[in-house]
Description:
This protein is mostly beta strands. It is 0% helix and 46% strand. It has a single domain (13-156), classed as Immunoglobulin-like (Sandwich), CATH 2.60.40. The protein is flat.
Amino acid sequence: MNKLTLASIALLQLAASPAIAAMTATQVVEKETVVRSAAGVETVKRAPADKVTPGETIVYSIKYKNDSADSASGIVLVMPVPKEVSYVEGSVSGNDTNVAFSADGGKTYVARGRLTVEESGASRPARGDEITHIRWTLSQPVAPKGEGEISYKAILR
Length: 157
């Protein structure tokens, strides 16, 4: 069975105002599993994604923090979507963010419902496996010592 170590394929971009020097960001890659109790109750658990097999769900997260005594504004976080996975529709999360998607290697970004690709000379909606990057623009400044988290889910192909 094909297995993949995901820690080596996850990347992060952080771009913002001069206050960026005081921002830190840590990417976490976890796999999600469903555990069923003896009573039949299902619970979703996360564990480090050291090894993932095709069909498993992976959660890519960035935890960010403003380490300065000043608010940080204009924060933009970008995560590439590895080519080995397919984005899970509706799985992005992040409070006070505007999210945009790219299917051209991060050159252009639009809302998910407007993301298209060219095929045989015609434009069509992009599938989850065609998304190459996801960008979160924080709509509010990050307070001094403030922190937050953004994430998305994908399925290993």
